[in-house]
Amino acid sequence: MKIISTTQAPQAIGPYSQAIVVDGMLYTSGQIGLTPEGDLVGEGIEEQTHQVLKNLSAVVKEAGGSLNDVIKTTIFLADMDDFVVVNTIYAEYFGEHKPARSTVAVRTLPLNVKVEIECIAKPSNYTY
Fold this sequence. Notes:
Layout: E1 2-4, E2 19-22, E3 25-28, H1 45-62, E4 70-77, H2 83-94, E5 100-105, E6 115-121
Parallel strand pairs: 4-5
Antiparallel strand pairs: 1-2, 2-3, 3-6, 4-6
């Protein structure tokens, strides 16, 4: 097991890792709309979603992969009315690659953000 940590995404705001690799599989913690410095990018769903996906991409990259290596994502939304906006931005980042995905509405998210995304990936360039 290897802990993955990068300064290109915000540090964990609790007692957990940005991600863990086990047997070549990457499991990320949920990413929210914080900058790598730990500041919330804004209150809008668009800017938060872009930052979440930048953070997720940075964590996967640190493990030797890219978003093309993502197998499954889970999206947590504070408001399901934001689904179409998040879906459109998500498609920009993943392009033709379409990992399996679940999207769930939740009552609240850390720091009262609007969106959180986690993933499972198999980084193509991960070395033990």
